Amino acid sequence: MSTSASPTAGTAAGEQGAPPAGNPRGRVVVASLIGTSIEFYDFYIYATAASLVFPALFFPNAEDPTTQLLSSFAVFGVAFVARPLGSVLFGHFGDRVGRKATLVASLLTMGIATVLIGLIPAASTPGWAVAAPAVLVLCRFCQGLGLGGEWSGAALLATENAPPGKRAIYGTFPQLGAPIGFILANTVFISLSSALTPEQFATWGWRIPFLASAILVIVGLWVRLSLLETPAFRKVVEASAVAKMPVARVFRTSWKQIVSGTFIMLATYALFYLMTTFTLNYGIAPTDPTDGSPAGLGYEKIDFLWMLIIGVVFFGIFTLVSGPMAEKFGRRAHLIWVTVAIVLFGGVWVPLFSAGHIGVQSLLIIGFTLMGLTFGPMAAVLPELFPANVRYTGSAVAYNLSSVLGAALAPFIAVWLWAKADGSPVLVGIYLAAMGVITLVALLLERETRDVDYDDNVSA
């Protein structure tokens, strides 16, 4: 199934405990971190706007507020449908041309689409009743296309530059972009909501975070253009092992790993978007709605966003903690126990949500702590399943197929279950637990990858 490339390139540098062949540690950290920070900033500002602004702005003709919200989340899910296509497109070039150039292209695709969202007229604008939602769908698709290639490239940038025994630690750097992006995006929304009237925010204020992402993209491009290609890909080139059609080869030689990686990531994605999107909707929904929508906790929007930010601080802390834990105990053992905890967590949603402010804040802290512990090692785990010459494509396809199953459907299903349970989150918690059980089975069937031959293993 695999052949070995030259085993000598990069070994000396690895033995000295520093990133091999040219990319300083600080540059690797910043370049992998800033890209995913921008990525998650872009996605969080869309997720927040999809909850707070877009239902009325782009779907004013929907039958009721619940239908408006479902329509908004349906567009939210478009990006997750596009992500597997992006993984194939950018994965092809990542394994053919190299990690660096592909990362630059994916960042540009995602960044331009985000800025354009900030320029779309509302559906109430004359002549834009149909065009506005259609352009929103197109931009959202392009966001997903870019993101389909972004995460895998950032993960490889970190792990393929890591010294031996530190791949999981280096892999937490791109993962840390998720909590950073969340805090940045929601701090911007809180500032705007505090500075503007509700009418000003709904009319034009929501556009500022989308337009401001252009600054972050420029900074990200500047950092990434200064990088050298990763040692692992250079060794693939030196061994003349570059795959002509990486997609065909990875499905021919590593299809089992794609299936495994997809389900290993499933609970992570479900937890991720339930904690960030569903909890926001449930938290700010009125306790006694008069418009037919399901009941919620009745928090003020800004108050609940601050509660989320407190939870996300724990997300960031335990993302960093997860790297050393995955190195010490192994990726598989670490994730098995965290996934068991996620299953149990799904069973305590109702008691915690019903326990007042302290219970709700505790739920957010526990959920985001588990999020950090399960999300942190993924930048090492998924790439380690695949040989170097199809690693970009394989890890990207697995990651993004999981996004469709675990994240694209999660907000939509959660709102539906919430309405079905007459305003109770009990079914949403059961849904999360079910996703955890599926991931647990996938982990039990997979091997440990901590000690795989990372640089020299290529598919035949």
Structure, described:
- With 460 residues, the chain is an all-alpha fold.
- It has a single domain (2-459), classed as Growth Hormone, Chain: A (Up-down Bundle), CATH 1.20.1250.20.
- The protein contains 22 helices and two strands.
- It has helices at residues 11-15, 25-52, 54-58, 65-96, 99-117, 131-159, 167-175, 177-195, 198-205, 207-225, 231-238, 246-253, 255-264, 266-284, 301-329, 331-346, 349-353, 356-375, 378-384, 391-408, 410-420, 426-445, and strands at 2-4, 457-459.
- A two-stranded antiparallel sheet has the order 1-2.
- Mean pLDDT is 85; it is low at 1-20.
CATH architecture: Up-down Bundle
Percent of residues in helical segments? over 70%
CATH class: Mainly Alpha
Q: Which topology does CATH recognise?
A: Growth Hormone, Chain: A
CATH homology superfamily:
MFS general substrate transporter like domains
What is the helix tally?
22
State the main characteristics.
22 helices, mainly alpha, disordered N terminus, two-stranded antiparallel sheet, 75% helix, Growth Hormone, Chain: A, 460 residues
SSE order and pairing:
Blueprint: E1 2-4, H1 11-15, H2 25-52, H3 54-58, H4 65-96, H5 99-117, H6 131-159, H7 167-175, H8 177-195, H9 198-205, H10 207-225, H11 231-238, H12 246-253, H13 255-264, H14 266-284, H15 301-329, H16 331-346, H17 349-353, H18 356-375, H19 378-384, H20 391-408, H21 410-420, H22 426-445, E2 457-459
Antiparallel strand pairs: 1-2
Helix pairs in contact: 2-4, 2-5, 2-6, 2-7, 2-8, 2-10, 2-14, 4-5, 4-6, 4-20, 4-21, 5-6, 5-10, 6-7, 6-20, 7-15, 7-19, 8-15, 13-20, 13-22, 14-15, 14-18, 14-20, 14-21, 14-22, 15-16, 15-18, 16-18, 16-22, 21-22
Keywords: Cell membrane, Membrane, Transmembrane, Transmembrane helix, Transport
Subcellular location: Cell membrane
Protein name: MFS transporter
